[in-house]
């Protein structure tokens, strides 16, 4: 068992699956450029985080210091993006962190990270869908019984948008890219307008003190809701102060989750070795600048104690008498959340495609649509799962799971960079992380530290999900995946079967069911 869970996927197999030439059967189609990748990246990053988390964390945890929290989150995400850029440009194939882990850390680590990524994107899409439903209801006056987060038993609006965008995701990657780029242009333009207009209403008094002094939290914020660091080191529970800024940084990191979806599009990028680094790093730079600017304007327009946690930006403009800007913000929120859901659905399809193609889940799920060129079966399955979650489960308490899942993936990717440089020094690397292995190690440690600032209940939920994934792996994937079948074929050949046939099967870059 120890040998099987540590077996690694040969790099030549990874490169063969993502080859730019040859037979298209079982492969995704290359239709995206660097602008498309940045569109997808900004489309998923700028969304729920800026439209909701800004108000919640400013009011309850960090005060105006939430601006520093967004900056810290952006720096940590950028460090991880450098690591993603090196791996994605060197090994351009679907699956991103899952595939990198398979090639460097072994099969069990790959399964864990693939399972973790499915959690991240599924919950992220469901949370965003419920937020989208609420914003739309507020914008056009829809009935709260079917669209409100608090007032509905079944959130019909959330389910409807997931199904609609699921159809777009299945129809084709190019169609998804076009819709995403349009929505991104709308919300980026409005975010720039928010910063430009909001600067005229910023008051210095609202920014003082920039980091409010630490204080004891309310009684309801104790217990499992405490950050893990406070529980481990026996620290007194507190909010605000610099500890509050760090806690808020771990939470608002949710706002940066999803940029790694760009790496999942490696196999559909026309020139992945050039365009992937541009797409990844460009996404983070644009998003971080906008986040810092918008959060600074919000806490400067309204005293942090008076911020509306539900719609912080729109309510801030209403408070200063700029109702026209509030309406534009609501429109941008709807556009931003729409693109976020779409990119999540696209990313889940690609991750599931990579895991299924390797046989860790049934290979038939990796079927590529003959006309659309998309992994339609796994995408359809995930659309159903997300629609049910979005319709029936209030996910506000589970939003932190998206952060912990993403940070865990970033740790794996950061560790994979120096390992792959040592084990495969001859591999062509169009983009190289500067100051390796120092920067990847700093990236991994920074992600781990932010993880420890999340609550204990988040850690417990994460562990439950990982245990469930372990049951699936040891019950199915460990014995039935492609590498396991190769080993069985090789053993059969050594026992008397045709060794030439066994050897050819062991180097076949594509599974017979992938197409």
TrEMBL record:
UniProt keyword terms in alphabetical order: Membrane, Transmembrane, Transmembrane helix, Transport
Biased composition (Polar residues): 504-515
Domain of life, source organism: Bacteria
Protein name (record): Amino acid permease
Gene3D superfamilies per record: Amino acid/polyamine transporter I
Membrane topology: Multi-pass membrane protein
Organism for this UniProt entry: Plantactinospora siamensis
Cross-referenced InterPro entries: AA/rel_permease1 (IPR002293)
Region (Disordered): 487-515
Ranges that cross the membrane: 35-54, 66-87, 108-132, 152-170, 182-202, 239-259, 280-302, 322-347, 376-395, 401-421, 433-452, 458-476
Entry's localization field: Membrane
Keyword Nucleus assigned: no
Keyword Transmembrane helix applies: yes
């Amino acid at each position: 068992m120890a040998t099987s869970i540590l077996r690694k996927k040969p790099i030549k197999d990874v490169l063969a699956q993502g080859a730019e030439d040859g037979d298209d059967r079982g492969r995704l189609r290359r239709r995206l450029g660097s602008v498309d990748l940045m569109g997808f990246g900004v489309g998923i990053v700028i969304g729920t985080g800026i439209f909701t988390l800004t108000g919640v964390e400013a009011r309850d945890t960090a005060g105006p210091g939430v601006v520093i929290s967004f900056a810290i989150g952006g720096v940590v995400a950028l460090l991880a993006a450098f690591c993603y850029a090196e791996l994605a440009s060197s090994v351009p194939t679907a699956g991103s962190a899952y595939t990198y882990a398979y090639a460097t850390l072994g099969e069990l680590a790959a399964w864990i990270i693939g399972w973790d990524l499915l959690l991240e994107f599924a919950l992220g899409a469901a949370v965003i869908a419920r937020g989208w439903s609420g914003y739309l209801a507020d914008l056009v006056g829809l009935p709260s019984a079917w669209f409100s987060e608090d007032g509905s038993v079944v959130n019909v609006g959330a389910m409807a948008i997931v199904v609609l965008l699921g159809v777009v995701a299945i129809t084709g990657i190019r169609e998804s890219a076009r819709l995403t780029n349009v929505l991104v242009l709308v919300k980026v333009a409005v975010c720039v307008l928010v910063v430009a207009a909001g600067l005229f209403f910023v008051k210095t008094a609202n920014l003082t003190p920039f980091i409010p002094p630490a204080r004891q939290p309310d009684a309801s914020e104790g217990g499992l809701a405490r950050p893990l660091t406070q529980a481990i080191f026996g620290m007194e529970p507190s909010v605000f102060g610099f500890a509050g800024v760090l806690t808020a940084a771990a939470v608002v990191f949710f706002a940066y989750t999803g940029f790694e979806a760009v790496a999942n599009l490696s196999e559909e990028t026309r020139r992945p070795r050039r365009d992937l680094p541009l797409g990844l790093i460009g996404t983070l730079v644009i998003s971080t600048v906008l986040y810092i600017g918008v959060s600074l304007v919000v806490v400067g327009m309204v005293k942090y104690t008076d911020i509306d946690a539900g719609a912080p930006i729109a309510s801030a403009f209403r408070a200063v008498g700029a109702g026209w800007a509030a309406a534009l913000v609501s429109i941008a929120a709807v556009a931003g959340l729409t693109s976020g859901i779409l990119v999540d659905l696209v990313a889940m399809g690609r991750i599931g495609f990579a895991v299924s193609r390797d046989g860790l889940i049934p290979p038939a799920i990796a079927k590529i649509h003959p006309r659309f060129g998309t992994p339609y079966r796994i995408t359809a399955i995930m659309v159903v799962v997300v629609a049910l979650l979005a319709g029936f489960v209030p996910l506000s308490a589970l939003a932190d799971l998206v952060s912990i899942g993403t940070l865990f993936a970033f740790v794996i990717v950061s560790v994979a960079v120096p390992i792959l440089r040592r084990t495969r020094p001859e591999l062509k690397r169009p983009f190289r992380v500067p100051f390796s292995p120092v920067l990847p190690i700093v990236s991994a440690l920074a992600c781990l530290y932010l993880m420890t600032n999340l609550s204990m209940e988040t850690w417990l939920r994460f562990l439950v999900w990982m245990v469930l994934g372990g049951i699936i792996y040891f019950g199915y994937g460990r014995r039935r995946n492609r590498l396991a079948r190769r080993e069985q074929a090789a053993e059969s050949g050594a026992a008397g079967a045709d060794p030439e046939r066994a050897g050819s099967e062991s180097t076949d870059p594509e599974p017979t069911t992938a197409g």
